[in-house]
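User: Fold this; tokens only.

Assistant: Input:
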Amino acid sequence: MRRLIPIVVATLIPFTLSADPLPSWTDTEARNRIVAFVDGVTDPDSDDYVTPADRIAVFDNDGTLWAEQPVYFQLIFAMDKLAESDPSILSSPTLEAAAKGDVEGIAAGGKEALIEVVNASHSGLSVADFQTSVAEWLDTARHPKTNLPYDQMTYQPMVELLRYLRDEGFTTYIVSGGGIHFMRVFAEKAYGIPPEQILGTYNDSTYEIVDGTPTIVKAPGLAFIDDKEGKPINIDRTIGKRPIFAAGNSDGDFAMLEWTTAGTGPRMGLLIHHTDGEREWAYDRDSHIGRLVDGLDKGPDLGWVIVDMANDWSRIYTGKN
């Protein structure tokens, strides 16, 4: 007679420890306020709940998602391109200064000189050829202080924040004074943000048939500068919704944060304050790049989170601890 052996089936209940979504943020008020905000807007039982369709987060790029010293990296790209160009196109003192890497010489000419450098280095190319040139530059160029590739000088804590927000149902956008065609080369790989979610400054363009192929060509002249009051205007025009989260680092971002946090319901404005002169740079009120005055003076009263890089971040760059 066959003996029946009782079989006990154990029900295994998986147990997992949730990973820290912000491992490069220290346990400070800034981190805690970010997490509390995200918890509130994603909890259906919370009075602060926001549907995923309205969880829009916008980020400046230069000085917010990657470094911006000693000058904007796109300007360094422009100067490098002019240094490699035919000397015959260096038709002014500004362009001669740019080809020599003379930032002070460009700065002496003000905004008009900067536009002249951008026109000379960015126009006359198809968008595809321009972006190929940017990609080749990113593969070889190194920052003069860190010796890192420029696309490894993204901020690890901000890359984590972008990922955390997307994991919690946010849609993340870049809204930057930088050029859209420049940023679109690296932003998806560096930040996980696809090209269609990048808003920025853009040149005039023309539609041409080049060697039988319909082509968009970058023309001289700036069609739109995505800075200061231009940022909320561009968000409204392109996204069509007021964000609930905005991050920046300078007074060029003030209007974007002000407009974002003026809406109804839960809102968060985040300012990156460059306080770390050892691991990065320390600058704010008197800086020629990323000047921050109004944000420091008015941001706290508006409820914004001011991130102290030296104290709130345990790591700076994605490419180096």
